[in-house]
Amino acid sequence: MMFEDEVAPLREEIDRLNREIAAKIAERVDIAIRIGSIKAKYNLPVVDESREVRVYEQVQKLAEQHNLSVEGLKRVFREIISLCVDAEKEKR
């Protein structure tokens, strides 16, 4: 068996996971926008630092549960949170 034959099914799995991850991120952004609308109604800022702290604590636990780099997963979530904050700001 050749290299490409062996990795092709695994790459298909990665492509499937990428689609699922993108869909979940889009779902998260949508929910963040809905939360942003509620924040705007109550004249609250887009960024809730105490909530972000709690999210990063949760991310640390998730990284440990899944044997992932804590700092690596936090970097991923920093980008996701940034994407959500930008989307909330755009809708204001």
Helix and strand topology:
Elements: H1 3-41, H2 49-65, H3 70-91
Architecture overview:
With 92 residues, this protein is mainly α. The protein has a single domain, classed as Chorismate Mutase Domain, subunit A, CATH 1.20.59.10. Helix content is 85%, strand content 0%. The protein is built from three helices and no strands. Helix 1 crosses helix 3 and helix 2 runs antiparallel to helix 3. The longest helix has 39 residues. It is elongated, with a radius of gyration of 17 Å.
Provide a short characterization of the protein structure:
This protein is mainly alpha-helical and 92 residues long. The chain has 3 helices and no strands. It has one domain: Chorismate mutase (Chorismate Mutase Domain, subunit A), CATH 1.20.59.10.
Number of strands: 0
CATH architecture: Up-down Bundle
Q: What's the pLDDT, averaged over the residues?
A: 97
Assembly state (oligomeric)? single chain
User: Quick one: CATH class?
Assistant: Mainly Alpha
Estimated helix fraction:
over 70%
Main sheet properties: none
Structural class: mainly alpha
Q: Give the SSE string.
A: HHH
Please tally the helical runs, counting DSSP H or I stretches of 4 or more residues.
3
Full CATH superfamily name = Chorismate mutase
* Cα Rg: 17 Å
CATH topology: Chorismate Mutase Domain, subunit A
Low-confidence segments, given as residue ranges, are: none
Measured by DSSP, the beta-strand proportion falls in: under 5%
Shape: elongated
Count of spatially separate domains: 1
